Amino acid sequence: MINRSCGISVIFIAIAGAMQGMLKIDKGEIASGRSMLVVLCIAAGTAVGELLKIENGFERFGEWLKQKTGNSGDKQFVNAFVTASLTVCIGAMAIVGAIQDGISGDHSILAVKSVLDLIIVAVMTSSLGKGCAFSAIPVLIFEGLITLLARLIAPVMTDTATAYISLIGSVLIFCVGVNLVWEKRLRVANMLPAVIFAAAAAYLPM
Questions:
Q1: What phi and psi values does residue 8 have, to the nearest 5 degrees?
Q2: Which of 24, 54, 169, 198 is the most buried (most CB within 10 A)?
Q3: Could you read off the pLDDT of 146-162 as tens digits, one per residue?
Q4: Averaged over 130-143, what is the pLDDT?
């Protein structure tokens, strides 16, 4: 039950982020948009991810961690690791915060995100197991690489690109929540390239 409660929380966090990117107030009325962006980015990203077998890579790394950390008897370790990693890695906050840290040395966004990640992972660990705690490894690698490459990435990270990444990231987090609540196997890691397509879409004429 704790597992499903955690999933519901993740779903509502994701819905809030997605609605922020898709809804706007137009002449006193709520209007929606960017539906086609979501469809195309998710479809194209998933196709690329399936070809690259990204989720299999996550699972192999999780299996390696399980053996090296003496948790070979924990059947939930890999699932917990992959689920928590995806939840805390996806999103514009990680990207924008890492870029800001790399360019100006201002790590305030990453500091706030680390507190949020700690809370999320602690809750997930109580329901999924200690595999969640090792999600810190891919987070450090992901944010560290972006920080190192910040000066190259910064020029393409416009406000529109950031908004699109946040929207698609929220949709992917929603999928993580669905897996937690209904125990369905949406291969969310294979959908990660959708975030790259989202950033690229910011430069297409609309």
A1: -65, -40
A2: 198
A3: 888 877 777 777 888 88
A4: 88
pLDDT of residue 45: 94
Residue 76's Cβ-count burial label (10 Å; 0-12, 13-18, 19+) is middle
Type and span of the H or E element at 30:
strand 29-32
Interior angle at CA 153, CA 14 and CA 90, nearest 5 = 20
* DSSP annotation of 37: H
Q: How do the domains of the chain map onto residue ranges? A: 2-196
| Cβ density class 167-196: b for 16+ within 10 Å, e for less | bbbbbbbbbbbbbbbeeeebbbbbbbbbbe
| Alpha-carbon gap, residue 140 to 137, rounded angstroms | 5
Which pair of structure tokens corresponds to residue 74? 């924990």
Q: Which residues contact 85 (CB under 8 A, 6 or more apart)?
A: 58, 135, 138, 139
For residue 12, give the amino acid letter: F
pTM, two decimal places: 0.79
Confidence of residue 1 (pLDDT cuts 50, 70, 90): low
How large a percentage of the chain has pLDDT more than 70? 93
Please report the beta strands in 5-104, taking only residues with DSSP state E, as ranges in sequence order.
23-26, 29-32
In angstroms, rounded to a whole number, what is the distance separating the alpha carbons of residues 38 and 197? 10
